[in-house]
């Protein structure tokens, strides 16, 4: 990901952050519409899950200029998530749900270029997480 993409992700995040709770709820709605079976991977309070998602997204955006730190965090998440029964196809569903959520939240401000920026960030994260999960 390049500096322009980093700035686009940061700018859109700043626009969406005040609605992070609603965005998190929308994300899971999209995810479970795409893959109803994914719901079984989430036990307990979905409010807590939404909160964790908000924190992960915040951490990602804050660390875009620190790729070593970001990728180390992704590796740790990948190792944890492998124990939850995630499969590679789930990462595709998460990426699709993320982009749908961003599109819904950004409305007319959502562009192909912005989608590409978020897709680049998520793609790097997902690859790192999957690789880490395979080594557990």
Give me the secondary-structure topology.
Layout: H1 3-16, H2 20-34, H3 46-62, H4 67-82, H5 88-106, H6 112-134
Outline:
By secondary structure, this protein is mainly alpha-helical.
Distance between the termini: 27 Å
- pLDDT averaged over residues: 93
Contiguous low-pLDDT stretches (5 residues minimum) are none
Helix content: over 70%
Note the overall shape: globular
Order of helices and strands: HHHHHH
- In what range is the share of β-strand residues? under 5%
Work out the helix count. Answer: 6
Radius of gyration, whole Å: 14 Å
Q: Which class best fits the helix and strand makeup?
A: mainly alpha
Major sheet description: none
Q: What is the strand tally?
A: 0
List keywords for this structure.
single chain; 136 residues; mainly alpha; 6 helices; globular
Description:
The chain is an all-alpha fold and 136 residues long. The chain contains six helices and no strands. It has helices at 3-16, 20-34, 46-62, 67-82, 88-106, 112-134. Helix 4 crosses helix 6 and helix 5 (88-106) runs antiparallel to helix 6. The longest helix is centred in the last third of the chain and has 23 residues, at 112-134.
């Amino acid at each position: 990901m390049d500096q322009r993409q980093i700035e686009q992700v940061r700018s859109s995040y700043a626009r969406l952050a005040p609605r992070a709770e609603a965005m998190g709820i929308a994300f899971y709605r999209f995810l479970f519409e795409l893959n109803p079976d994914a719901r079984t991977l989430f036990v307990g309070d979905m409010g807590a899950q939404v909160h964790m998602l908000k924190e992960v997204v915040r951490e990602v955006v804050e660390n875009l200029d620190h790729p070593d730190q970001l990728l180390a965090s992704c590796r740790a998440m990948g190792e944890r998530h492998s124990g939850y029964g995630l499969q590679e196809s789930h990462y595709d569903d998460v990426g699709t749900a993320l982009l749908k959520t961003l599109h819904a939240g950004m409305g007319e401000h959502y562009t192909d270029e912005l989608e590409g920026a978020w897709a680049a960030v998520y793609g790097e994260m997902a690859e790192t997480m999957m690789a880490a999960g395979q080594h557990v």
